[in-house]
Amino acid sequence: ITEVCGAKRVGYFGPAQFYIALKLIAAAQSGFPVRIESIKNELPLPRFMALKNDGEVRYGTPAELHGVKFQVPHATLEKNSYKRTDEGDKQEPKSPPMSPICSPPASPSTYQRIPLSYGYGKSRSGLEQQHGAPYEVRHPTHQQDGPSSGNYGAKPTLACSTLNRSLSVEREQQDSNTHYSDDPWRITEEQRDYYINQFRSLQPDLNSFISGSVAKNFFTKSKLPIPELSHIWELSDVDCDGALTLPEFCAAFHLVVARKNGYQLPETLPETLLPEYLQAASLKPMRDCALFDSYSEPLPGGQQTRDFSRTEKASAEEVPDNSALLQDAKKDDKKALKVSTALKMIPKEFQHLTVKTAAQESNALKARPRSRSYSSTSIEDAMKKGEEPPTPPPRPQKSHSRASSLDLNKIFQQNAQAVRSGWLPPPPPALPPRPSVSQTEQVSEVELHPQMNRPPSQAEENSSAKKEVVLAQPPSKPTRRKLRTEAQGLETPELSPTINVTSSLPAAKPHLPVQKQSSKQKRAIQTAIRKNKEANAVLARLNSELQQQLKEVHKERIALETQLEQLRPVTVL
Amino acid sequence: VLVSVICSPPQNYPLYIRSVPTENELKFHYTVHTSLDVVDEKISAMGKALVDQRELYLGLLYPTEDYKVYGYVTNSKVKFVMVVDSSNTALRDNEIRSMFRKLHNSYTDIMCNPFYNPGDRIHSRAFDNMVNSMMMQVC
């Protein structure tokens, strides 16, 4: 085997040779001939009888052989007893071993860990991948199960020494579970449970913070040097508020554990330790993705996709489910809260609207979306941001329906008197072509009028413009009224201030009393309002442009007229 | 050329010094040290109770022929001093202000770390990164 894998030739067991050797061992044990080709078969794990761990210990054979630096699972520290005498030199020439801080004694020479600077988790060359079915189950068939669970239970109450011991136990659990994800920065379920228990011991409310001093005392117990703890804090306190939320705490604890196990601390927080990631794997995929992009990742892209696929698996687990459910419940609460605040807003706004003039109305309406955001907490805002992108598509259809548009009509007809004339507000999104058409009609009407009416002088241009509009009003009234019945009567204060004619338009319209509305309708109303405001702005701009054109046309006409007058006497003469 | 220093009261010893490029560092250290007097003078001159952002920024402390020194003081009397090459005329006041603001923000982030004792030298990697990026931007 040594010869085949190339160790003899090279003179030592580099990673590649090591992997090949392991595979060959497995092959030989399963009865395949010892040749390079047999590596390609699906091989069971090689069994090393020399290792005694109060039980069976199996190694995974690496799946990837090339270019991958490997990290040995921590459990292999127990395998120090395994003497690789027959395989000659270890990988000393390859890389400096990282001696873990609380490692069991003896030589890590047999299994060395390549420093994380090479790439965290990337080098988890599937050593763990091929663990058998038992390893897929959370608790390994390790002997340490007994004492480990004992320790586990006793942890929350014990002091630092137990912390150390439990850390070592955790390490094994972490090791055996790292096969589940090649990433040492991923928090497994037991770890998460453990962290949550620890959090509870420090701060009973899981949704609140651990203050800096409390956390400092706690982490100092882990006997890491202060600069390292400081760095860990820097990494994990993402919002830099001097306190740790549950996910931040988990990340910090995880980093402490990793450091104690000998991993170097990363320069930036790995994606799997981000608070958002830890908090809601299922909740906000969009934001997570955005955040992942913003963080520099030590993991390569391939790893990332693998991690993502694993997160889905992970999210199927209980604890993340619980936390996710918790988050979902919170989110629903907040949504309900938001809706109820929105509901509360609306009656107030009705009062506003009935009293004010158009200008004030506009302000109130403008303020409505703003005050909505004021009334909600910042978390709600965040939740809303998450919610709003997905939900808008269904809403516009609601506003298409007659019922909701009628409701909106009811609302705004309270402002009916104060509503100025001017361009009609656009009907709900389904009907945009028509208002523009009607408005172009109106515009053309307006332009025709001056030519027909021959306004007296240039000085009265403005007033003539007004007049035109007034004149244009009656003919367009019927069209406008027709549109009005369908439209939501949003007044348009931004429209050209020159047009200050308040119309007596809606007097004829019935004043439907405002019925109690369902929250859905209100939401539809608000969206419709938003849309109307946008359309408003567009139309206002259009209006002003058209007014400009109108003025220019006026000027031209007047110039032509004066020219004509000048010329006429000549011809008469 | 850019040197930034953070000095803390009461003795005004530096918590953090970073300069780019790194030759002639001592000269800049000396300059910073002397400019601390100017800073103190300005602080005592202010004396009023109200301290807001604008007053935190002390502006050009002392222009010598080669370089300019800018100062900034926080509410807790932690002083930030920046020495900039005079040849770097592209640097406007706004940019200096924004640089000080960034320094201040990073400094408060460091303060939030419970493992940091005020008065220690600053070893934060995040802070280093920020300062480096700022300096690279200038030079």
TrEMBL record, chain A:
Keywords: Calcium, Coiled coil, Metal-binding
Basic and acidic residues: compositionally biased ranges: 76-93, 307-316
Compositionally biased region (Pro residues): 94-107, 424-435
Domain EH: 191-276
Residue ranges occupied by any EF-hand domain in the UniProt entry: 224-259
GO annotation terms (biological process): endocytosis; endosomal transport
Region of interest: Disordered: 76-108, 137-156, 296-321, 361-404, 420-491
GO cellular component: cytoplasm; plasma membrane
Pfam family, one: EH
Chain segments annotated as coiled-coil in the UniProt record: 525-563
Entry's Gene Ontology molecular function annotations: calcium ion binding
Domain of life of the source: Eukaryota
Protein known as: REPS2 protein
TrEMBL record, chain B:
GO CC terms of this entry: endoplasmic reticulum; Golgi apparatus; perinuclear region of cytoplasm
UniProt subcellular location: Cytoplasm, Perinuclear region; Endoplasmic reticulum; Golgi apparatus
Pfam families per UniProt: Sedlin_N
Alphabetically ordered keywords of this record: Cytoplasm, Endoplasmic reticulum, ER-Golgi transport, Golgi apparatus, Transport
GO biological process terms held by the UniProt record: endoplasmic reticulum to Golgi vesicle-mediated transport
Main localization, broad class: cytoplasm
Membership in a protein family: Belongs to the TRAPP small subunits family. Sedlin subfamily.
Name this protein carries in UniProt: Trafficking protein particle complex subunit 2-like protein
Gene field: Trappc2l
